[in-house]
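Predict structure. Chain length: 219.
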Amino acid sequence: MERVGLIETMRVYEGRIPFLERHLARLARSLEALGMPRPPGDLAALVTPFSGTGDATLRLEVCDGRAAVTVRELPPLDPPAVITASEPHVPYPHKTTERDCFVDAAREALIAEADDALLLTHEGWVAEGTVWSVCWWEGRGLRTAPIGLGILPGIGRARVLDLARAEEERCARSGLEGKSLLLVNAVRGVVPIASLDGARVPEDARTSQLARAFWPAAG
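Prediction complete.
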């Protein structure tokens, strides 16, 4: 039987890891909640030497009390064409290696010649993407799916909540029609969605402003 591990996927941005403390805090909470052993040693000391790799993605995986770090290239940062997945969302409160519904949704997007997929709950509520949180502009404010739906408490999502004072809102797929949508995670930052199910998504200048503010200045 394959062992379940925890993952933290981090961005090396201009030679530093801007959200390292948030990543390690989330990892610690998940280890405790799931009753998984914490690796010995300082995880920050394990990860930090990789910050000299320039702009890159770091994957920290913890399983059975052992930790490993791998370096990957950045994913595409262009606005993606997204489809709504037929695969229903499965609650994902911790970032574990059990990601079958997301893998299946990503495969569905590939077959549809799209860049990515948005998952809905069994009840039809907008949940999250395969590796990102989704937000949308509603009037003067930003909205995002509630944590209570079982979505991942994303690091990028938390940063956007800090910056834009976004509000959580249950939203059916039809409620996204005509709205300006964006995705966010701790690797891509804030990226506008170009299209959803073949329909062009309207642009909003506030998304660009949010994207510029997303990465904290070096302290």
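Summary: The helical segments are 20-34, 43-47, 100-111, 155-164, 205-214.
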